[in-house]
Amino acid sequence: MSLIALLLVLGHAVLFGIVHEADEGAAAHVFRLLTVGQVPVVVYFAMRWLPRGPGPALRVLAVQASAALAAVAAVWWLT
Hints:
The protein is mainly alpha-helical. The protein contains 3 helices and no strands.
């Protein structure tokens, strides 16, 4: 979901350029839904897999956190 959010931000910037709109468009709403929607998925993953295999689970969570930070950083950098 984070990678989709990142691609959404970059695709919107490529297609429409970096413009400061008075009203947020559909892309901003979809980005927000993707970033908030991944929280329960990550929490479920952590609750299920951290007790079983903490090493691999922490690596997956680190990749997930990096992807989420990349998506948010792209929004911050482009605005």
